[in-house]
Amino acid sequence: MKEHIYFVNAHPDDLISCMGLCMHLSADERFAVHVVDVTHGERGLNSKHVPMAECAAIREKEEEAVCAAMGLKPVWLHEIDGEACASKQACQELTDMFIAEPPRAIFTQWPIDRHVDHVVCGTIALNALRFFSGVICGQMTKVATEVYFYAYASNSIGFVPTHYFPMDEAAMNKKFALVSKYECQNGPGMARQDRIESLCHGLKARTPYAEAYESFQPHLPGSKCIFDQLRTGK
């Protein structure tokens, strides 16, 4: 039986920072990968005076194309770009997904960020996990699901990686090509910036390139996290 992995993002294209890992997991037969976007990114072309509905359609199409290249189909919650507030509806929608296909691991956005939608995204992911786990008093001390955050150099504050996902030149080039598909958001420019950030993370991880993640819960001695599983292949 496949283990379910969730990537919960605020907007279409936020998958950029964790796309290398998403590509790898989606190609691994042990896992079923789910991409969930909290909003449709409908304000992403405001500076070009593109109406919100039209922008949402453009960004949905780009996200679907990127995910299709990995054999995935994205799902959207019902929050609005620039107005996301972790509504009970959105949290419950994600909870229902978790109940139907329980998560082995959740990857979402670091919640200390200058973009409020990014903050809200992490809140929705953790709230859904709280509801799914049946936690009543709010203290998630016995949640088995692994949770990892990813961050953006331009917006995130206080992010300290605990895990790195290594990438070689071939994987980086494949990621670069996928990121470039987000054309309405200057995909090639974002791809170039991501290559630089991945190179910096790679220097710390002593690999050509890498993505950085911070664990929500402490690693317990003797336990095997998903990064250990990927490293050993077991």
Features:
7-stranded mixed β-sheet, 234 residues, 40% helix, Rossmann fold, alpha/beta
Q: Segments where pLDDT lies below 50 for 5+ residues?
A: none
SS element count, helices: 7
Shape: globular
> Count the strands?
7
How far apart, in Å, are the first and last alpha carbons? Answer: 14 Å
In CATH terms, the superfamily is LmbE-like
Give, in spatial order, the strands making up the sheet with the most strands: 3-2-1-4-5-7-6
What name does the CATH topology carry?
Rossmann fold
CATH level-1 class: Alpha Beta
Assign the CATH architecture.
3-Layer(aba) Sandwich
Structure characterization notes:
This protein is α/β, with parallel strands linked by helices. The chain has a single domain (3-232), classed as LmbE-like (Rossmann fold). Helices cover 40% and strands 17% of the residues. It is built from 7 helices and 7 strands. The protein has helices at residues 19-26, 52-69, 88-100, 116-133, 169-179, 187-205, 226-232, and strands at residues 3-9, 31-37, 75-76, 103-109, 146-150, 163-167, 209-215. The protein has a 7-stranded mixed beta sheet with strand order 3-2-1-4-5-7-6, with helices on both faces. α3 (88-100) crosses α4 (116-133) and α5 (169-179) packs antiparallel against α6. The model has no long low-confidence stretch (mean pLDDT 92).
